[in-house]
Amino acid sequence: RFSKNLRDMAPAMGPPAHAKGLAICRGPEGAASHDPRALAGMTPTQELFNAASMVVPTLICTHVWFTMVELGGQGPRTALILVGIMLHLPFSVAYHLLLARRSLRDAVANTPRKLDQSFIHVMSILATWALSPSTSYAVLSTTMNVYFVARLWSKRNTLTERMCNIGLGTLLYGLAAVMGGYYIDFALGALWFVSGAVAMDVGFGGWGHSIMHLCMGGLAYHCMICASNIQLREHVVS
Fold it and tell me: What is the Cα–Cα distance from 13 to 6, expressed in whole angstroms?
């Protein structure tokens, strides 16, 4: 009789508290509620901000190009950085707009994302040539970034590998500045890069990716300043 009473009470009592929590986390039917079309759970509005924030690095580089002429802002080295930033821009914006519209079945494994990340490596190659005092080192960086792009399009790559390769590509052109003796520009650029990486990792409720794009504007600025200083020095020497 006691057991029967417990069974009769069970529907009224409902499931245990931990079971309720699990059901909420996994959706009304116990299925995972994760949407594969959303990158890191970001909303369409946040993806629109991701697309818009990608314009910031291009605007900053363009500003340096047109306003710092007497300080070496215009030249072949700063042109390489500006071109690299502008080449990457449309692919990144297109990717985030597709995410905003939920047009991609998988937010991670897709061609637009691979194109976006491929042109980050193209930017890394051009930035290395802009900042490097050594042709041999620039060739080495180019070779490594080409390999990273090949790995990106391989079926046997992982998210961790892709992110590490992007970080290495960025480090390669940062070290080019160090080789030229531009330690302050390297340190400030690295600070912006690390800040952006931390913001993206923390997430900030889905806004971390946009914050990261803004931080990349700071990195782009110091790359342009470094290239400007190199051009000024080369002009004085010549």
Answer: 10
